[in-house]
Amino acid sequence: MKCFRNIRSIFMHADGVDLILMGLGLFGAIGDGVITPIIFFITGLLLNDIGGSSLGDKTFMHAIIKNAVALLYVACASWVICFVEGYCWTRTWERQASRVRGKYLRAVLRQDVSYFDLNVTSTSDVITSVSSDTLLIQDVLSEKLPNFLMNASAFVASYIVSFIMLWRLTIVGFPFFILLLIPGLMCGRALISISRKIREEYTDAGSIAEQAISLVRTVYAFGSERKMVAKFSAAIQGSVNLGLRQGLAKGIAIGSNGISYAIWGFMTWYGSQMVMYHGAKGGTFFAVIICITSGGTSLGRGLSNLKEFSEAVVAVERIVKVINRVPDIDSENLEGQILEKIKGEVQFKNVKFMYPSRPETPIFNVFQWKNVKKLTRKKKKKSI
């Protein structure tokens, strides 16, 4: 239940129109995944018709045309479904993103000085934070979530279609889907982890370059050009090493796709036994093998997106924390006494003040002051 609430927090800024768009996008993503096994099913029927044809068979062309027309209908449906999937998810994210950015900026402007003193190291961190967090959520809503739904529905639909076509072969090949998860999970987890570290390295190098450019006069004055270049090069070197690790991980993950070919070989051997002794058709067992291998790899690709979901939840929590924070001095709070008449005289008595980040260092201690602005002006007039 807690995990469901955390994932639901990603959509907390959605209105009625966004719910409709997400519903249509959900329909499109599931339909996109179901289309693939349906094509494999029609292809199996087409191969059976081709393999069972004989010279002078009048029904052969009729069966071929019927399957070709079915593929044409599926192609048109696929175009519509994929368009709905891509448009609705992208559109709803743009609507939610503008709403989130507006609320975040309003919440930041609402905060008092203590918030910036304790939580923000520089004013650019506020812009960077909302940009990186919203872009992360955008990546999840517009791409990762539809991709996960599509792959999950493709996995379920592939095995349902396989059971319908040839249930015995499907039962034998069902346990192999665990091995098919390895390429997708390896590629997803390894590449995501390394990519995050590369972004951190680029962030450190970018901060060095930003400091050097913003303080370029000081750098020139002390002759530190070579020192700053060497420091920047050392920061970039970390990303180079991570890039080599990324290439190695990607090569291992792509190479592990050979597992699917091994499963294909075993299923072909077992399917040939069913063709010889159980009356199965060649096109049917061929389509079943494709569905099993395609469904397993689709699930592996889909599960690799779960890490982005957790990161998006954390990003949403950071944004919501700022939006829901009520400062001690709330500029939007109209409660309290409103003065009708205000005189231009200010007086402080026994004022104590220290910065929230340095409470042990008082700035004012029993400070007293009275406005003497009028007296100063009179003296100036007399001197003239």
Automatic annotation (TrEMBL):
Transmembrane segments: 21-47, 67-89, 148-167, 173-192, 251-270, 282-300
Residues of the ABC transmembrane type-1 domain: 24-311
InterPro entries: ABC1_TM_dom (IPR011527), ABC1_TM_sf (IPR036640)
CDD domains: ABC_6TM_Pgp_ABCB1_D1_like (cd18577)
PROSITE patterns, alphabetized: ABC_TM1F (PS50929)
Record's keyword terms, sorted: Glycoprotein, Membrane, Repeat, Transmembrane, Transmembrane helix, Transport
Similarity annotation: Belongs to the ABC transporter superfamily. ABCB family. Multidrug resistance exporter (TC 3.A.1.201) subfamily.
The protein's name: ABC transporter B family member 22-like
Organism listed in the record: Camelina sativa
